[in-house]
Amino acid sequence: MGRAWTIEPRFFPARAQNDHHGVANSPFIVRMRLVTLFTYVVPYGTLLAADGFPGNIVSMSAESRLLELNLVLPPAPKPVAVYKSVVVMGNAAYVSGHGPVRTDGSLIQGVVGRDLDLDAGKAAARQVGLAILATLRSQLGSLDKVRRVVKTLGMVNSAPDFYDHPKVINGCSELFAEIWGPDNGIGARSAVGMGPLPGNIAVEIEVIFELA
User: Fold this and answer.
1) Which architecture characterizes domain 86-211 according to CATH?
2) Which of 7, 70, 84, 101 is exposed most, by the fewest CB atoms within 10 A?
3) Could you tell me the mean pLDDT of each successive run of 10 residues in the chain, 212 residues long?
């Protein structure tokens, strides 16, 4: 759904001008100037600048989107081994593998395709995405410091006969698209099956972000 502004084309009389002989255009000839206008469709949640035209569109910030979507982030998980949650190099943030942390700090566990169905696995991947957002906020101070998603690696704790790993990881990818938009929120991606994952968590995801 989007907001649309439509202006119908109209003709306006052009100012009389001398031709190349220095003689004014005949008053009996009505010269018209066509003003070309367009229909602008702007995605829902996008703010327009004062003139109301694309080209001066100001996208809603990631922090504003988080509030608008009424998302509740879990506590930022702390490293459970010898690694850092985030490493910043230049304008890139490398986020270590995260699991599906609930708001109470517990983890979503189980094998997708055996203990959990596809929808539950996808929900677990979305919860991983929320945990990653919590870490970014904790480490960077604001989600607005992230420009875009560059690369996602999604690992699914899956049964041997489960093959819908990409559909599971969509839970995280769709969340990022909601936060940073369909262009900046979607990057390159791999989705693979693993067995088992640490602590029998359902999904683990690591991401590379470009910083603003």
Assistant:
1) 2-Layer Sandwich (3.30)
2) 70
3) 39 43 39 36 39 44 96 96 97 98 97 98 98 98 97 98 98 98 97 96 98 96
